[in-house]
Design goal:
Keywords: Antimicrobial, Bacteriolytic enzyme, Glycosidase, Hydrolase, Signal. The protein contains 3 helices and 8 strands, in the order ββαββαβαβββ. With 157 residues, it is α/β, with parallel strands linked by helices.
């Protein structure tokens, strides 16, 4: 139901990728040499991370109120135990899961990473939802093979 995305900021980011498959050290070196400054690693690794991203998409229950309660329980627990976190999600899934008018109580203090595969590293397409008036990061291209690694492209100003 929920996937966790671990974000490693390698430098001040503009363009980044996320990796969800086994990837060699030489591939990471190649990616860094090609100018990617942020890498999001999906999986279970012994890493020190700066932020955990909660993936808000897919199939939950058919009850918006049940989904809203579950989201708040999960986010309140993350906050209580000191997990620095963000939300990965789209306006489409947000509306389907929680109802289009539902506003996340901590949106103003929680970064939003949204997907829109338009090959445009910009936020010009962003439309407010869930209490967010602006995003922190955008996934703008998916399922790309570069440096022998399967990646998604991300933009963060």
């Amino acid at each position: 139901m929920i996937a966790l995305f671990l974000c490693i900021a390698l430098a001040s980011a503009k363009l980044g990728i996320d990796v969800s498959q086994p990837t060699s050290t030489s591939s990471f070196t190649c990616l860094r040499n090609k100018g990617f400054t942020t890498m999001v690693i999906v999986g279970q690794y012994s890493l020190k991370v700066k932020r955990v991203w909660f993936d808000i998409e897919g199939t939950w229950t058919s009850s918006a109120s049940t989904n809203q309660r579950y989201l708040m329980e999960m986010m309140n627990e993350a906050r209580a135990i000191g997990i620095v976190h963000g939300i990965y999600g789209s306006k489409y899934y947000w509306g389907n899961l929680f109802g289009s008018s539902y506003k996340y109580a901590y949106a103003s203090s929680t970064p939003l990473w949204y997907p829109h595969y338009d090959n445009s590293p910009s936020f010009s397409d962003f439309s407010s939802f869930g209490g967010w008036t602006s995003p922190s990061m955008k996934q703008y291209r998916g399922d790309v093979s570069i440096c022998s690694a399967g990646v998604d492209y991300n933009y963060k100003p």
